[in-house]
Design a protein that fits this description.
about 325 residues; five-stranded parallel β-sheet; globular; EC 2.1.1.319
């Protein structure tokens, strides 16, 4: 029996390794297949060959190396890619298979332990795809800001350079499902679900307002401390309906800060092509019945939870011009 159980244990471990590696690969496939994301970065770089030619580029969290290779295509003299995960071994093979190993150098490890190679004092451009759900959930932005402080030349360029978090009012309410499940009320599960921020693609037809700016992030100057925030919003309804949820998305800007530069952007809004970030939906405990022209205002805050397992906390305080008001706390995990 012992030999058998040992063999079974080895099979179980092999399976675990297999699923783990596939899960990692699946994540990369999802990101690469996201055309809005991948083409957004590619177009920003290839439209700005004049700014990339002869430059040194740092790719933070390079993954499969796709952004590093775009930077090389755009004319960079040297591209340094760094990633702490196993994918770096595959990325090296990919870079070699595409004949870019002379320009693209990949390093495995954390940014904290990384130092620039001999002869390179600073980098001219930092590129990174660091964004998370709700922009800031489990994002790599703190690491990117550390890279900026340590390695970016004084007149260097961050790509992306600016982010905007935006919020809209919506009648979307997937959680109404729990009111009648095969004739039974499961409303208590709906209440539990309302305590969690949902990540889903919201139908554009459910939007009851234009989006308003919640928070702008200048990636050239923002500090880590500013990533925990509370910001005001005010929405004017463009259509009547029950406001069942607030929908948060982000827009990504590549502003080149140079006369020769071509500015580009992409959006993750419900009005745009869906991305793997989808939108973040904050379901209100009480839907607010509102008419076109009514106003909904308040604050939305985001903070990294001190206990990592609890992820990210989002607070919402709102009031309508019709007198309804509420305050809610959401978890994102």
């Amino acid at each position: 029996g012992t030999a058998c159980s040992k063999a079974e244990a080895e099979v179980a471990l092999d399976e675990q390794d297999y699923f783990n590696s596939y899960a990692r690969l699946g994540i990369h496939e999802e990101m690469l297949a996201d055309k809005v994301r991948t083409e957004g970065y590619r177009d920003a770089m290839l439209a700005n060959r004049r700014l990339f030619e002869g430059k040194v580029v740092l790719d933070v969290g390079c993954g499969t190396g796709i952004l590093s290779m775009f930077a090389a295509q755009a004319g960079a003299r040297l591209v340094l890619g760094i990633d702490a995960s196993d994918i770096i071994d595959e990325a090296r093979k990919i870079v070699e298979a595409n004949g870019m190993q002379e320009v693209v150098r990949l390093y495995r490890g954390t940014l904290e332990s990384f130092s620039l190679p001999a002869g390179i004092d600073k980098v001219d451009i930092i590129v990174s795809e660091w964004m998370g759900y709700f922009l800031l959930y489990e994002s790599m932005l703190p690491t990117v800001l550390l890279a900026r402080e340590r390695f970016l030349a004084p007149d260097g360029l961050m790509m992306p350079s600016k982010m905007e978090m935006r919020v809209s009012a919506s009648s979307h309410d997937r959680l109404a499902f729990w009111q009648d499940v095969y004739g039974f009320s499961m409303a208590s599960l709906g209440e539990r679900a309302r305590a969690e921020a949902a990540v889903e693609v919201v139908p554009e037809s459910s939007l009851l307002s234009a989006s308003c700016l919640l928070k702008a992030l200048d990636i050239h100057s923002i500090s880590d401390a500013e990533l925990d925030f509370t910001a005001p919003f005010e929405l004017t309804l463009t259509a009547a309906g029950p406001v069942s949820s607030l929908v948060v998305h982000f827009d990504t800007f590549f502003n080149m800060r140079a006369e020769a530069g071509v500015d580009t952007m992409f959006s993750t809004s419900a009005s745009s092509t869906p991305t793997h970030w989808k939108q973040t939906v904050l379901y209100l405990r009480r839907a607010a019945a509102m008419h076109a022209g009514d106003r909904l205002s308040g604050t939305i805050g985001g903070v990294r939870a001190p206990d990592y397992k609890r992820g990210y906390l989002i607070s919402v305080s709102w009031k309508s011009s019709r007198g309804d008001a509420d305050t809610q706390l959401f978890r994102l995990k």
